[in-house]
Fold:
Amino acid sequence: MTDVSATGAIRRKPLVMQYPSLLIFLGCLALFTVGVTVLSEGFGIGMISTSFVKTLGKTLCLCLVALAMDLVWGYCGILSLGHMAFFGIGGYAIGMWLMYARTELIVIESLANQALPPTAQEISDGIATQIFGVVGASEFPPIWAVSHSLTLQLLAVILVPGLLALVFGWLAFRSRVTGVYLSILTQAMTLALSLYLFQNDSGLRGNNGLSGLQNLPGLDDVPQSTVSIWFFWASALALGLGYLASVAIVSGKFGSVIRAIRDDEARVRFLGYPVEAYKLFIFTFTAILAGIAGALYYPQAGIINPAEIAPIASIYLAVWVAIGGRGRLYGAVIGAAFVSLLSTWFTGGQAPDVNLGFYTIEWVNWWTVLLGLSFVAVTLFAPKGIGGLFDLLTSKTTPDRHGADLGPDAGALREKEAET
Amino acid sequence: MSVLRRFYIGIASVLLTVLALPALAQNADAPIQQLLQEHGEIIAKSSRKTIGPAIDALGSSSLPKAPEVLEKWQAKELWVIKETGLFVYTEKVDSKTERMIDIATGEVIGEVAKRDLKQLKPNSGIRGLIGAALVKFQLQDPSVAARNRALDAIERDAEDTHLAALRDVMEAEENPDIAARMARLERLLTIEFGESDEERIDAINHFAGDLGVDVRAALNPLVAVRVEAAEAAPEGDDVVRVLTPGSEALSREAAYDILVAAELAKPRISRDDKREALIANISDGTVAGVQVASLDSEEARDLAYAALARDGVVDAVATEAEVDETLGSFTFFERYTAASPAVALAAAAVLTGIETKVALNQTADLALDAVSLASIYFLAAIGLAITFGVMRVINMAHGEFIMMGAYTGFVVQQFVPDHTLSIILAIPLAFAVTFGAGVLMERLVIRHLYHRPLETLLATFGISIALQQIAKNIFGTQARPLTAPGWLDGSLVFNDIVSISYIRIAIFVLALLFLALFLFVMNRTRLGLEVRAVTQNPRMAASMGINPDKINMLTFGFGSGIAGIAGVAIGLYAKVTSEMGADYIVQAFMTVVVGGVGNIWGTLLGASLVGTLQKGIEWLNPSNTLAAQTYMILFIILFIQFRPRGIIALKGRAAEA
Structure:
């Protein structure tokens, strides 16, 4: 992998040489982006409807959060059931600015025709009544203190999930909570967060959530077909950069250490590595990645409410990664794209019903059952997931040592899952 | 003599009646008519001052017709025949004719022109006196139910006249229950209507420590206060406390409004009114010489308004600075207004005592609630204590086993209408169904994933969402009822505050039974011994002739079966929906983890901790159960930081298993 240069320093091969899949992935992503743009209504020939462009854009965001999940679970062995919570926090952070700025424009417009020019207080009261009237409040909760500033809210997209993950991770890792316990703990954190947001006095409009996020403030003249392509580009760019960053992390020594932590944490600790610091870095980094993905997802979805943060969403995330194939970055992306698009197709009522004679299977009702059972099947029979198909293409084989685990830890890969 | 006199009057009356209205006959001899005739003059005069003896005479007479006469009189249905002075009831026939009814017999006498009669129209004062006399009759009614009704009526709507009536009759009351009620009511009425302060204070002190809602309802109005303002706080018993404007008890605005209402200060103006006043005075784009466009801050508007006030266009108002200054020169205090200071102080003292006692009882009630919530969590968690605690298999579908048990109960009730019998049938059936499901799941899925806890978590989660959706497809999304047998309805009431429903008691008992069953199976049976052996060292156990496969299967089935029974119990207490399991699963895992994995006593402690905690937080913030759950989970996350292995941590080799 490495060679020694004339100066004696260890020089690594360029990233692309180490990970040829990086180029292929980025190429595919670029091709896909250009293709969708050409076929779109906003910039091309209009073969793809605006709503489908939005679906594709949202799918790219889900791929990004799946990438984060793969980093933390597939590479570091931490089965976090909280990453969709970070995703949701990112969405809330950007949603607050979108909602505030747009309502501000509306309120200023409506107050402009009055006899006296409005005071700052009147504008602020007007916005608060507009936003919080639905939960019976008319004052800004402290949590909205910086919602007027796009810069600060964008900072919040990164900082809030990051800090939450940092604090939670520090507490959990330092007391050596690992394996299933950590999963249950992250699930509890997610549940607590969503229950908190469900309250009306949480200051984030309770179960109404934030809505109207698809309208960019001040850009009412720009049609949604154009806006959707902008967000699609942004999502594609974020996914590309996220993939690049993830490859950079998992290649090289750092990547080896986190993989080793996944398989045998105690041994890595005895070798002198600060295991907690490595885990904390990965946990926080992926939380930020998830927050960014959420901030791009919810303006395309248009609405965010606490139900999106419920623990089940995070478990679905794990399902996507497992079906795509954990421990390989492209696997996560493929899993998220495949399952979420399939899910949209089935639950959208487009899938044809199956008539068994005595019973008609309506996929709207039975898709979840199929998903649940196929998930069991993947766990039992195809631990490599869809990613395993690529091993067949490149005719990679895994050494057959009776399928033993790579290490003793709960998160360790099984030998039949490992790439080499 | 009197007999003779009465006879003569009778004869005379009869003669007169016959003479005047030959077609009609009336019994002028009836004792009630005689009694009325005795007081005929003052009754006809109908004055509040002089009517007393007449009502007293009717009230104290033992004539059976007296109450009826009083009622009719009160309802303005008692008329007097102008010519004879005899009293009759009437019914209206048309606008000029009335039908007369004899007051003694209730028989129709005949019809007569309205102008020949005079209606008695008692004023409200007299009606009150009549009412009190009537109450006395009702309180002396021979029927117990009627006496109770009369007391109910007084409790609902007490008047000062009731007190005297009550005191007159309570001595003679023989029924002990009613006598006790009367005595209590007399004390309550004395608090409200007693003539002297001493009497009232006496009655108030009588209720020290009484938890009845009626006592608090009688005492609370006595301690009503009004906020007043003065240059200096007056001395005196009736001053409750001095308030600072801007504090929680008295806002700045409210304090200033008091001063304005007492004409001690200039009025202030609200922002909206100021804005309206400015708008009303716009001319040529300026207000009092100030450009309208510059009025985009409160300061600018204040200046413009002050300019308007100087021109005399609008009334001068207090600025914020003036408001502060005025507020500073006054003292605000609360004064008792509803009763004399001595009474109010006595009431306040007794109320404080009662409130302390109420708080203590509420704590007891809260403790009962906590225990019942804890037993529900324990029920939900005990199956997990076996599968997760003993076997270390994480089963995310555990909640769905609870749901399956509850739906089994629901289905059984569709076939067996008798609720008692159906519950008795449902419990073993629910065990059988979920035992089967558990064994099936262990054979097909979990067996292949031992030592892969994360994969088990995800696979069982897949099963969980599939089962949930299947239940939704079969039973629909609406909640299904699982009705408890009739003998579990109602609740065990200790006093006005402390009570617990029988269903919760039943769940508590069931939780204890399960605990006993678990302990018995694990410690006293062959199965338990083998389970412990397999858990600790499967290979060694196998070499001792135990079949680990079979034991794992049975243990998992046992844990799942208990979840099914728990489902029946939880279904009785909450509605059966496809998501009911998911509602409990996180709390159930928390219970096991907090308590300490692998120890049933730990699970018990964990359930108590989680239940108490949730109820305690709910009590601090009663409107919000969501917040309570949020804070409870946060607490548990922190708790695990300090005791990662739970309350009761296994030590040594068992901890590694």
Observations:
- Chain A has one domain: 21-347+382-393.
